[in-house]
């Protein structure tokens, strides 16, 4: 029997790698038609994207930006839910970075929800 936590963890690893390696096309097979995404900004609630095309377009825009450097802190998965803790650097200074977390939900091997939060 396949452990759902292992499936979720694997999907989150692949998702994160697309950002670290600037490989936006690696996201194509990971996003469900019913996906919902809540971005980290604008405050206080973040922009909401609904549907595969909207989520994929947004995430591909970030993954393809060579000026952004994501670093993985931790991936945790339990059943159909998981978290990715990350840091994002966009310049050389200490003020040019932020730490955050994306809370994810996976169904049938696809991401159906991504909720982003940052330390402000």
From TrEMBL:
Domain of life (superkingdom): Bacteria
Gene3D superfamilies, sorted: 3.10.450.50
InterPro entries per the UniProt record, alphabetical: NTF2-like_dom_sf, SnoaL-like
Coiled coil spans: none
A Pfam family: SnoaL_2
Signal peptide location: none
Sequence ranges assigned to domain SnoaL-like in this UniProt record: 13-113
Protein name from the UniProt record: Nuclear transport factor 2 family protein
């Amino acid at each position: 029997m396949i452990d759902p936590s292992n499936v979720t963890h694997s999907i989150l690893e692949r998702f994160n790698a697309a950002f670290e390696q600037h490989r936006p096309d690696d996201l194509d097979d990971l996003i469900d038609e019913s996906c919902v995404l809540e971005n980290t900004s604008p405050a206080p609630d973040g922009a909401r994207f609904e549907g595969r095309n909207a989520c994929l377009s947004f995430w591909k825009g970030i993954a393809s930006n060579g000026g952004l450097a994501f670093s993985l802190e931790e991936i945790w998965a339990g059943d159909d839910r998981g978290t990715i803790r990350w840091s994002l650097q966009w310049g050389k200074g200490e003020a040019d970075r932020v730490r955050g977390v994306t809370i994810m939900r996976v169904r049938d091997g696809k991401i159906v929800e991504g909720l982003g939060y940052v330390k402000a």
